[in-house]
Design goal:
The complex is a heterodimer of chains A (603) and B (394).
Chain A (H helix, E strand, L loop, with lengths): L8 E8 L5 H11 L17 H6 L7 E7 L5 E7 L8 H9 L3 E7 L6 H12 L3 E7 L8 H12 L7 E2 L8 H11 L12 E10 L3 E10 L1 E3 L3 E4 L5 E3 L2 E5 L3 E4 L1 E3 L3 E5 L13 E4 L18 E7 L5 H12 L6 E7 L3 E8 L2 H14 L4 E3 L6 E5 L4 E4 L11 E16 L3 H10 L3 E7 L5 E9 H4 L3 H8 L5 E12 L1 E8 L2 E2 L5 E4 L3 H15 L7 E7 L2 E8 L12 H19 L2 E3 L2 E3 L1 H4 L8
Parallel strand pairs in A: 1-3, 1-4, 4-5, 5-6
Antiparallel strand pairs in A: 2-3, 7-8, 7-16, 8-15, 9-14, 10-11, 10-16, 12-13, 12-15, 17-19, 17-20, 18-19, 21-22, 21-23, 23-25, 23-26, 24-25, 27-28, 27-29, 27-30, 30-31, 32-33
Chain B lengths: L11 E6 L1 E2 L11 E2 L5 H15 L9 E8 L7 H14 L2 E11 L6 H10 L3 E7 L3 H7 L5 H13 L5 E7 L6 H12 L5 E6 L7 H7 L8 H17 L3 E4 L2 E3 L6 H7 L5 E3 L4 E5 H6 L8 E8 L3 H11 L3 E8 H12 L6 E2 L3 H12 L3 E4 L2 E4 L1 H5 L1 H11 L1
Parallel strand pairs in B: 1-4, 1-11, 2-3, 4-5, 5-6, 6-7, 7-8
Antiparallel strand pairs in B: 8-10, 9-10, 12-13, 13-14, 15-17, 16-17
Helix pairs in contact in B: 1-2, 1-11, 2-3, 6-8, 13-15
Chain lengths: 603, 394
């Protein structure tokens, strides 16, 4: 096989907001280039997990190689590197972008640009990528393609006329996208003879072959037998196989500068192949790694407990299995008086947490109780010792604490003018500090910049943002640092017994309000029992709010003859099962929703 | 009686007679309004179904109770009732002193009719009085008024009904406890041997259920239930009627033998549309069921609509809609649920259940006498939850 000249390769990503049509466009590109036949094309080819397809989001990056004959008759190799589509995966997005020379920006003709899209476009521009803007969904009656073109020009600075009008659904304009990729995006640069430098932009675990590493070769060549070294983790391996995605993994002789593909090298654990790391040759190492690598660490923690304590071992195994493919997921055993044995898990963000939870329930048939998510606080003790606390229950005694620092984030919110007020109110309630407001003149959009505690946005901030802006606002955030605050632990006592899994850390000034809301919410979700159940919220042993679940007054059927007896038995059998899903604290049965009640304090 | 298996052979028979003059707004039973032309064919179908059940009859074990329920069985002309009773005697036999109950509505009861019933061997009348308060009867949409009900009571007594049971409904919205109390004291003038007091239950799918769902009528209140239930217990106790089940009161010795058999897990036969029967293992085998070794009994139930029931019996000799094998564990659960409703309570089994019972006892919900649990007044008010607690620990 004659190696393809580097000038005929194009490596690119697609940047789009959820639902703006990234997957559909990717499907059309695969179809039009004959990479998959229309028959093989299950909708949204690139999103392989069921969950991704259902939610219309991409969780893991994917890559696919297409061959395209341009209008002047030249054949090009196009490598599409898919990017995860959510704020939780910002770092992964930046590495996927770094694997290409350009990006196709997809904007919904009925929606305009959203905050995350903007953040990703800026990431791409910072890395010197060329952008091909595409205004999608022009077939919809409410489409405003010219307005969106103008918005792209205003916000990103690409002349309106350059934005391609397309409908990935009908196929209109998709050929123009391919031509633009070929003609507007630069070919890769790089020297096949220089020492090897390959960027890891993703990896996955294959039960039969070990870790499959997704790479973009910048310089040099990768082939079977190459002795490689991971420049950040220092691991060394011998390459067993290299290949490309067409879209199935297909063995090739080598991957050289400019190419995108995979390698297999008897790597046991995905943790040994870190996204963003640079692969070099052991015998002829590159002097410098590629820029941009950082260690990814969880931002949000929550306890995951099996409803049925017999499922602890299954939960452990399931988490281990998920971790094979998810470097960002961390977990360690946790014990709760209320919930028994489980795991404290670390996630990149709330969506990541929801995805892991859903996969555990769906793919491993586990029933779980998840506690309210928490961030990691830096606690300085009297006497100088410092520790990180990601579980509110483990906050040391207030008397021993010198100070508590909480993580803060810079939040960028794109919101139409008419909802600006209510969104600013929301940020204010969540202890946000106003930084800046930009008007996207002459349009209706504004970009709000706030700095606020991460702990305030991991609960239902996003939902609130959406509901207070009728769905129009969108947001992006990045960690900005830590700051000491007056933080206290809010405990909950049910029938006099402290429920460890319900403790949360809140700002001292908000403790009263939060405590009242939490007690009120718990009163609503804890069903009546055979006796009265007091619910108390307390800070440092001082009760600040109290509610009561009154005792059940009547629960008995008038008649029990013939057919009633069978019905009664079947009901008992069902209720007995339902009871097993409840957690017992002292003598009180608490349903699972209660442990997430903290999440919906605003409602 | 062993708690492990359904006790047989069946010594009780339930016959369902669905005919009614009208449907009451709160009723969700298998009934048929009118249907005069179906009465003969229906009785014929029941006789055929009895034929199909006769292999379960055992020599030397005649029925101890027969219950003609409905519907309004009193609407059936005496000759048709006679055919049923003759058939039952031929196929199963009635033991000396057997309890033979007929359900009747107050309207249309005459001395002649009552005498006919008595001469057929019916010795217990269950009268659907429901209330002796006219506004309550109107609210319930009943066909009779208080005067008619009192006349029926007097007629039954005068004609010599020695075992009289009356149904009452309480906690009717917008009617105060005092009117229920007045109703009850007027009823007690007739010195009934047995009274069933049911709180008004709103069943989905009934006219009342729809009215309540659409807020056209108020739902019964828990407060009314609690107040009037306690009132009923006190007044009936004073008149010498003891509560022997959640909703049933009787003079000692006049407890319903038929119903007690249900609640104590004994086998019983049933025929007619919508009827449910419970067979012990041997009877089920005799009737041709093939059973797994762990099956300790069989529950079967018939088609609900009278016309489809009749058609099915004609073509297949029986009118079953379904059946299920009962395991020992299921039987225990049924015994627990029914037994806790009884004044005498029920036996508990296992350390976990006894431990939970001690907690419930500390809460004042049950009294423990050895391994026997008896629900207290407060325990009875929330008995379904108490049962669940014990069932979950069993």
């Amino acid at each position: 096989m004659v190696p393809r000249p580097i000038a005929r390769i194009r490596n690119f990503s697609i940047i789009a907001h959820i639902d703006h049509g990234k997957s559909t466009l990717a499907d059309r590109l695969l179809e039009l280039t004959g990479t998959v036949s229309p028959r093989e094309l299950t909708e949204q080819m690139l999103d392989t997990l069921d969950l991704e397809r259902e939610r219309g989001i991409t969780i893991k990056a994917q890559a696919v190689r297409m061959l395209y004959r341009s209008r002047e008759g030249l054949e090009y190799e196009l490598n599409l590197i898919d990017t995860p589509g959510h704020v939780d995966f910002a770092y992964e997005v930046s590495r996927a972008l770094a694997a290409g020379e350009g990006a196709v920006l997809v904007v919904d003709a009925t929606q305009g640009i959203e905050a995350q899209t903007l953040a990703n476009v800026y990431k791409a521009l910072e890395q010197g990528l060329e952008i091909v803007p595409v205004v999608n969904k022009i077939d919809l009656p409410q489409a405003e393609p010219e307005l969106v073109r103008a918005e792209i020009e205003r916000v990103i600075g690409i002349p309106a006329a350059q934005s391609i009008l397309a409908s990935a659904k009908t196929g209109e304009g998709v050929d123009l996208v391919l031509e633009a990729i070929v003609h507007q995006l630069p070919p890769p640069s790089g020297d096949p003879e220089a020492p090897l430098r390959a960027l890891i932009f993703d990896c996955k675990y294959d039960p039969y072959r070990g870790v499959v590493v997704y790479v973009r070769v910048r310089d040099g060549r990768l082939r079977v037998g190459t002795q490689i070294r991971m420049m950040a983790t220092q691991g060394t391996y011998t390459v067993d196989e290299v290949g490309t995605f067409r879209p199935q993994m297909t063995v090739t002789e080598e991957l050289s500068a400019g190419e995108v593909g995979y390698l297999i090298a008897s790597i046991r654990n995905v943790r040994d192949s870190k996204v963003g790391d640079t692969i070099t040759e052991l015998s002829r190492p590159a002097p410098e790694p590629l820029p941009g690598y950082r260690q990814v660490s969880p931002m949000v923690w929550a306890g995951l407990f099996p409803v049925d304590s017999d499922e602890y071992q299954s939960l452990k195994e399931a988490l281990e299995r998920l971790q094979l493919n998810d470097t960002a997921l961390t977990f360690q055993p946790e014990t709760s008086v209320a919930l028994g044995f489980g795991f404290r898990c670390g996630f990149l963000g709330l969506l990541h947490m929801e995805i892991v939870q859903e996969r555990l329930e769906r793919e491993f048939q586990l029933s779980l109780i998840t506690t309210a998510p928490s961030v990691a606080y830096r606690v300085r003790l009297r006497g100088g010792r410092a520790l990180e606390v990601d579980n509110p229950d483990q906050l040391p005694d207030p008397g021993s604490i010198e100070s508590i620092e909480e993580p803060r984030v810079k939040v960028e919110i794109v919101v139409p003018k008419q909802h600006l007020g209510s969104v600013m109110d929301l940020c204010q309630e969540r202890r946000g500090e106003f930084q800046q407001l930009e008007y996207q003149s002459p349009g209706e959009g504004t970009v709000l910049h706030y700095e606020m505690p991460l702990g305030e946005i991991i609960h239902d901030f996003y939902d609130q943002l959406k509901s207070r802006s009728r769905g129009y606002a969108s947001m992006d955030y990045t960690l900005s640092g830590y700051r000491p605050e007056q933080l206290v632990k809010l405990d909950v006592l049910v029938a006099g017994t402290r429920v460890d899994a319900l403790s949360i850390i809140v700002h001292r000034e908000q403790a009263g309000r939060q405590g009242r809301r939490l007690a009120e919410r718990l009163r609503q979700v804890i069903p009546r029992q055979l006796f009265e159940v007091p619910i108390q919220a307390a800070v440092g042993g001082k009760v600040i709010a109290r509610e009561t679940v009154p005792a059940l007054r009547k629960d008995v059927l008038a008649k029990c003859y013939g057919g009633d007896i069978t019905r009664k038995r079947k009901l008992l059998e069902k209720q007995r099962e339902g009871k097993q899903r409840m957690k017992r604290v002292g003598s009180v049965e608490i349903p699972q929703e209660a442990f997430m009640a903290v999440l919906s304090l605003e409602r | 009686m062993s708690a492990e298996a359904v006790a047989g052979p069946p010594r009780s028979l339930y016959l369902h007679l669905p005919f009614c003059a009208r449907r009451c707004p709160y009723c969700d039973f298998a009934i048929l309004v009118g249907g005069e032309s179906l009465r003969e064919p229906y009785v014929a179908a029941v006789l055929r179904e009895l034929d199909s059940l006769s292999p379960a009859a055992r020599r030397g074990a005649p029925l101890r109770s027969l219950y003609l329920g409905g519907g309004t069985p009193s609407l059936l002309p005496p000759p048709l009732l006679e055919r049923l009773l003759v058939a039952v005697r031929q196929r199963f036999g009635l033991a000396p002193g057997a309890e033979v109950t007929l359900e009747a509505n107050p309207e249309g009861i005459t001395p002649g009719l009552v005498r006919d019933w008595l001469s057929l061997g019916i010795n217990r009348l269950s009268l659907g009085v429901q209330s002796l308060d006219d506004p309550t009867l109107r609210w319930l949409g009943r066909n009779h008024d208080a005067a008619a009900a009192e006349a029926a009571l007097a007629t039954a007594r005068a004609a010599g009904v020695g075992n009289l049971s009356c149904d009452l409904i309480f906690a009717v919205p917008s009617r105060p406890a005092s009117s229920f109390g007045a109703s009850l004291s007027r009823l007690l003038c007739f010195q009934p041997e047995h009274v069933s007091c049911y709180e008004l239950t709103v069943e989905p799918g009934t006219e009342l259920g729809r009215d309540v769902a659409r807020r056209r009528r108020p739902a019964p209140s828990e407060g009314d239930f609690l107040e009037q239930r306690r009132l009923a217990r006190e007044m009936l106790a004073q008149a010498g009627l003891r509560r022997y089940e959640i909703s049933n009161y009787a003079r000692p010795g006049h407890e319903s033998r038929h119903n007690l058999n249900y609640w104590q897990g004994g086998a019983y036969l049933a025929a007619g549309c919508g009827a449910h029967g419970l067979l012990d293992r041997d009877s089920a085998l005799a009737l041709g069921w093939e059973l797994a070794p762990e099956t300790v009994g069989v529950r079967y139930w018939n088609l609900r609509a009278a016309s489809t029931y009749v058609a099915r019996v004609r073509s297949e000799g029986q009118g079953r809609r379904g059946w299920e094998p009962i395991t020992a564990a299921q039987h225990r659960l049924e015994l627990l649920a029914c037994g806790l409703r009884l004044g005498r309570g029920t036996r508990l089994g296992g350390a976990a259940q006894l431990a939970r019972a001690r907690q419930l006892s500390a809460l004042g919900l049950i009294r423990l006498r050895g391994d026997r649990a008896v629900a207290t007044e407060r325990g009875q008010e929330v008995l379904d939850r108490v049962t669940l607690e014990l069932a979950a620990a069993g």
